[in-house]
Amino acid sequence: MDDIVKAAMLKWPNVPNCYGWLALDARGDWYLRDAPTQAAGPFPQIKGSLIEHEKFKAFIHRNYLADERGAWFFQNGPQRVYLQLELAPLVLGVRRLSAGEPDPHGSGFEVQAHTGQDVGKVQSCWLDEHGRLYLLTDTGLGVVRSMDMATAADAVAAGVWGEPQEIAFADMPARFGFVREPAPV
């Protein structure tokens, strides 16, 4: 978390939380969802405004966390902005490592979150009824981006992450401890 965010939290400790105004889609893109957008329909059917400003996205990435319920939020200064997740808290990119590249996990593949963070070791892989591939990593659960499925399929075929286990999409939040649509407690 940024130092400026920590300082704002100390200066203004009782700022109310915000819900429904930020969302993460299956490609790892952030969307702002103002009141008219929220009234127009649920996420992801009505997405909202795509955040394209690179420095703002980097700020969100550095301050993206989960609370004790597994509800993910962006700590925006003193305010927690809880977000809606289309699929999972992390969106994962998968890349095959070239010969000679460092391979800290010994898999021959690099897995990185939409935040740019290395997610550590892949513990298991899962397939939902829609054919989407999820990886449980040291950092948490993430869905593999559609554009990286061919590379991920190579890793699965090579047995790098073990045999994919089947799971119903609706069962994933409870199984992996995250909240897709947080609401005030």
Q: Can you describe what's shown?
A:
With 185 residues, the chain is an alpha+beta fold. The protein is 21% helix and 30% strand. It is built from five helices and twelve strands. The strands form two sheets. The protein has a six-stranded mixed beta sheet with strand order 3-2-1-6-5-4. A six-stranded mixed beta sheet has the order 8-7-11-10-9-12. Strand 1 (18-24) and strand 2 form a beta hairpin. The longest helix has 9 residues, at 3-11. 29% of the residues are buried.
Q: Short summary of the structure?
A:
The protein is α+β, with helices and mostly antiparallel strands.
Question: What is the number of helices?
Answer: 5
Main structural class:
alpha+beta
Distance between the termini: 24 Å
Overall geometry comes to globular
* Residue-averaged pLDDT: 93
Order of helices and strands: HEEHEHEEEEEEEEHEH
Oligomer: single chain
> In this structure, how is the largest beta sheet organized?
6 strands, mixed
Strand content: 25-35%
Number of strands: 12
Q: Helical content, roughly?
A: 10-25%
Alpha-carbon Rg, integer: 17 Å
The stretches of 5 or more residues where confidence is low (pLDDT under 50) are: none
**Strand order in the sheet with the most strands:** 3-2-1-6-5-4
